[in-house]
# Entry
Amino acid sequence: MTIRTLIEDFANKLSSLMEGQALDRARNAVESALGVGARRRGRPPKAASAAIAVIGRKKRKKGPKQLCPVPGCKNPAAPVFGMVCSKHKDLPKAQIKKYREARRAKKLKAK
Ligand SMILES: [Zn+2]
# Structure
């Protein structure tokens, strides 16, 4: 046996050892992320809740910006004004409702 083969043998052993460790670590990360294999019950591990938070944030993505229902108005509607724009926030609610219904009817027809 030469020194070269000895070193190669050692390197192979080391790399397989590290691979095994990496695999173990990867599996642990996945398990803890999924909350599977966790020995503790109750609250999910931090990784899992973080993942859930990310997924939840994605799901909660807001749709297209809502516009003020007043015809011809291109301003974005704001919830603080009752989903009309700041310019039309003083319009009577009944009027806004009519505009809203008209807009909805138009949208449905367009489909
Ligand atoms: Zn408006």
